[in-house]
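Quick one:
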Amino acid sequence: MGDVELPELLHLVSKRLRHGYVHRLGPLGLTPGQARALRVLADAEQPLRMVRLAEELRIVPRSLTPVIDALEESGLVRREVDPANRRSTLVVLTSEGRAAHETALDARRQAGQELFAVLSDEQREQLKELLSAVDAQFR
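Output:
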């Protein structure tokens, strides 16, 4: 595999990680997009307006609607009128949603552990540092 370029290799590894994550999310009834929405809501520690949640997810608000519809149908979030602006809708994470978020985090960790099991602890730490350095230039 020495002739594979770094961007292609990173793409392949990312696809494998995503596949492992999707495989673990399936039995939970979640998609990666739904899990990301739960993560953003959990990290915010307060309800977010739909527009703000879409911004955090870097998607257009109309793309967020089916995600929130599915999460609401599953009882993981609920919509509320924003008391500060009655024309806005807040997305509130339920206790079931918080639990689903924690389960999704475990699924992501397990997928990563499985994928990177071939590396030593030192190699994993070095890879993390290298990827962090690349990511830091865009923050």
